[in-house]
Amino acid sequence: MNSLKKLKQQFLEYIEIERGRSLNTVENYDRYLTRFLNFIKNDTPGAITDTSVRDFRLWLNRQSARPPVSGAGGSTGNNHATNETLSKKTQNYYLIALRAFLKYLARQEVKSLPAERIELAKISEHSLDLITPVELTRLMRSPQGSDIKSLRDKAILELLFSTGLRVSELCSLTSDIDLRSDELSIRGKGGKVRVVFLSGSAKQAVKNYLASRKDMSEALFVQISEAKNQKLTKDLTPLTRRSIERIVKQYAIKAGISKKVTPHTMRHLFATDLLSNGADLRSVQMMLGHANIGTTQIYTHVTDKHLRDVHKKFHSKR
């Protein structure tokens, strides 16, 4: 009989090659499953039972959010000073990975706990901490100047708001981007291709940025040294998702925005802007690349003001 450790490795290779999952997803699944296997301390498929899963969930629920959960099942890694435990959403990531692993075992005819026995934790209704239209305008105007770094950062913000791209998708863009068209084909989660659209301001921002580039790097967005008057004449390192997160945060602070602003905030703004202006949910789902329309529906709560205005305008006044 194959060990759980070996089966886990086969599963990770399966979701990467056969299912086309990103390396980031594979690494996350590896981390979640390794933590579970370390917890149960038994390398046989039969060790995954209702009881072992329940004990693991109790253990997860008692972990401190800071510092991260310890890799060993015997160490709780609790930091009671913070009184902040892992969120239900984070706990569900572990359960989703375990459920996918169990489905794989069933397909391989390996006897273990049926995947349907695992239920996700109930989480409170998702709320979006969005910035106001005025704050968005200030944010978009924050990168000023004609230096290459300012032009790059302006292009990043414009593209995020125009397309609703995930930060990983933005990082994957290349410098041979075709700006003759108003649309781009993007390969998103699970290798699925979708079309996103460029606004006039986004196209112009990218054109201005590329015109200042003299290097041969294939990446669209690259790291730029702070050295004054640096000439880009060689291959440069592509920006990472962390770098882009820092750039967005930097300009939010510069714009005087006290709320937390991330690249994903820009994706939220993209979706709510479309819905607030009358776009249908199905179209927004396709532009965001959501597999399930239920994921897109979280944005409908933000557009309740539109419903209130309709009621005020059309309902009989008595």
Walk me through this protein's architecture.
It is a single chain. By secondary structure, this protein is mainly α. The protein folds into 2 domains: 4-117, DNA polymerase, domain 1, CATH 1.10.150.130; 133-310, Orthogonal Bundle (hpI Integrase, Chain A). It is built from 13 helices and 2 strands, in the order H-H-H-H-H-H-H-E-E-H-H-H-H-H-H. Strands 1-2 form a two-stranded antiparallel ribbon. A hairpin with a 5-residue loop joins strand 1 (183-187) and strand 2 (193-197). Helix 1 packs antiparallel against helix 2 (23-40), helix 2 (23-40) crosses helix 4 (88-107) and helix 6 (148-163) packs across helix 10.
Comma- or semicolon-separated keywords:
318 residues; DNA polymerase, domain 1; two-stranded antiparallel ribbon; single chain; 13 helices; hpI Integrase, Chain A; mainly alpha; 2 strands; globular; 49% helix
The number of helical segments is 13
* Approximate strand percentage: under 5%
Number of strands: 2
Secondary-structure element sequence?
HHHHHHHEEHHHHHH
Explain briefly what this protein structure is:
Helix content is 49%, strand content 3%.
Please render the helix and strand layout as text.
Layout: H1 4-17, H2 23-40, H3 50-61, H4 88-107, H5 133-141, H6 148-163, H7 167-171, E1 183-187, E2 193-197, H8 200-211, H9 241-254, H10 263-276, H11 281-288, H12 293-296, H13 304-314
Antiparallel strand pairs: 1-2
Helix pairs in contact: 1-2, 2-4, 6-8, 6-10
